[in-house]
Amino acid sequence: MPRPRNKSNELAQLLRNYESRNVTYVSGESPVFWESASDTTVTDADGNTYLDLTAAFGVANCGHANPNITAALQRQAARLSHAMGDVHPAAVKVQLLEKLAAIAPGDLTKSFLGSSGSDAIEAAMKTAMLATGKPAFAAFRGSYHGLSIGTLEVAGIKKFREPFLAWLPERTLLLDYPRGNAAQALEYARRAFSRRYDLAAVIVEPIQGRGGCVVPPPGYLAQLREICRERGMLMIADEIYTGFGRTGTMFACEQESVVPDILCLGKAMGNGFPISAAVASPGVMDAWPASEGEALHTSTHLGNPMGCAAALASIAELESRELPRRAATLGNRLATKLNALHASGKVAGVRGRGLMWGIELQDAAQARAAVEKALTKGVLILQAGEQGNVLSITPPLTISEADLDRGIDVVESCIA
Ligand SMILES: Cc1ncc(COP(=O)(O)O)c(C=O)c1O
């Protein structure tokens, strides 16, 4: 029986009147309007329920409406919901900064807080420019670092940049994201860097998320780290998607013992409350002059106390329930299932780590059809990849084994 969608249809109609038409894709079964969510279950405006295999863009790592995080937000809202981030900050901001310094790898102990992932990337870009005195960046094709005008300069997906090229300096050295042989990919990067003396940093996702869950070959990130050191370039790790346990450790870089110069965080940091950070070593971060009364880089909501409380509660939840380890264990289970799917010849490829996986299909049309069909069967997945031909699977790290198995069985049944 088809799922009721009267309310979703009505809301979609209204949306057409009041939202920029570029934002929400309205067609066929999409969108469904979320009314509530609990752990891995989402309920829409018509009362239909869905198993969420997206964690809502990789945000709800601790599960939707996680009771401990909700309680922390309620306590904070009753006490203080806004302060003066860079003038008279909330006390809880200090607690969060201290915690970030404790969990970030190596000597990454000093942060800029922000609200969105793009905020964190822009703070990292400015920091790298000040620390090196250089104006340009290297980035990877297929990479996604946000859509603000600053981050578009390093966007690896062409269509996002093209309408705005007139505004962009276009100084970015775009490299192919490594697939296959690490040594060859490193040689290619070395050669490309050798022709450029203006690079402040290379910005890299340890696993490309939006780009279709592309995993670099083992050893690549560690060697890239070394090349950056040799060339006096910084390494900015964009862990906005991979961070906070998603790939089986708190941060994906740790799996290659890589300590970047700047670590960018967002998404799951507040488990649904918008907050982000760029975390650097004192040597790099202190390229900024001490404030003489007016910050050169800040924003109204920097260090928002609600965001800080949500982030502290999320990190506590990840740690006390050992959710990164759980992602690693469930990831092995998922790998077995997805590798079997690949072996069946039904899909072009599967790849991932922890609870971040991509299923590569023939083309975008096949992927779109699978996403829509899964929706009608009560499972939420996303389309990803530069060509749109990848199904991305990034459930909350709290998902049960039974739900994970059931969800993947549904996804499999939706692939034509
Ligand atoms: C790896 C990565 N970096 C940056 C961003 C941008 O974050 P935001 O959309 O919060 O600006 C995203 C968003 O999907 C992302 O996946």
Question: How many domains would you count in the coordinates?
Answer: 2
Rg measurement, Å: 21 Å
**Biggest beta sheet attributes:** 7 strands, mixed
The computed structural class is alpha/beta
Fold and architecture overview:
- Helix content is 38%, strand content 16%.
- It has 416 residues and is of the alpha/beta class.
- It has two domains: 6-62 and 322-414, Aspartate Aminotransferase, domain 1 (Alpha-Beta Complex); 67-320, Aspartate Aminotransferase, domain 2 (3-Layer(aba) Sandwich), CATH 3.40.640.
- The strands form three sheets. It has a seven-stranded mixed β-sheet with strand order 4-10-9-8-7-5-6, with helices on both faces.
- 49% of the residues are buried.
